[in-house]
Design brief:
Low-confidence stretches: none
Helix content: over 70%
Oligomer: single chain
Radius of gyration: 20 Å
Mean pLDDT: 84
Distance between the termini: 49 Å
Number of helices: 11
Shape: globular
Order of helices and strands: HHHHHHHHHHH
Structural class: mainly alpha
Number of strands: 0
Amino acid sequence: MGPWRLGDGATLLDSIRVSLVFTSIAMVIVAAIGTPMALYVARAPNRERLWWQAILLVSVLLPPLALGILLSLAFGPHALGPFLDRFGLKMTNTPLAFIVTQVYVSIGYYVLGAVAALDSVPQALETQGALLGHDRWSVFWRITFPIARLGFAVALSLAWVRALTEFGAVVITAYYPAGMPVALWTSLENFGLPAVMPLLVVFLVTALPLPWLAHVLAQRQLSRA
C-alpha cells in the first residue's frame, strides 16, 4: 500500500468541518423532532404504534442509494421543488440538502431507540407524577427522562454514527459540500489508498467515541441495577 500521504489537505480539512458541523446541526434537529415523536409512538395504542414503527423502519431498512433517490424525487421539479424554490430553498448540493438528508437517514434510529428506552420506564411512576399535579412535560423531565436518559443517549449516538457515515444518500443529494464519506471516496479515486488512511483515522475517531461511551455508561447502569 505504501506510506500514508495527505492528498488535498485543504479539501480534507474542509470535509471534516462540513461533516462535524452539519452532523451536529442534524442531531439537534433529530432530537428536537424525534423526542416528542418517540413519546407519542411509545404511548400510542398498539395498532397505531405498529404503523408508526413500520414507517420509521423505511429509513432504516432501505438501501442508502434508494433513500437518496426518494429524497431527490421528493424535492425534485415534479414534487416539492417548485414550492421550495419560491422561498429560495435549494435541495441539491447545498448545506440544507446535506442536513436534511442526514436527518432523514438517522431519525428512524433515534426514534426507535428512544421508544425502546421509554418502554423501560414504569408507567406507574408517570401516573403517580400526574396524580401529584405535574403536566405531561413536567412528568417527562422529572420522571421519564432521568430513568431513560442513557437509552436516549444510545439512540442519539446511533443516529450520530448513521448520519456521520452516510455516503449513498448524501452522494446523490449533496455531493457538494463534500463531507468525510464523499472525501474518502474522492481521495481513493484520485490519490489511491495511502491518501485515504489519514482521513479514515479522523473518521473513526469522530464516529466511534460517542456510541462507545454511551454503551459503557449503559452497561455500568445495568451492572448497578
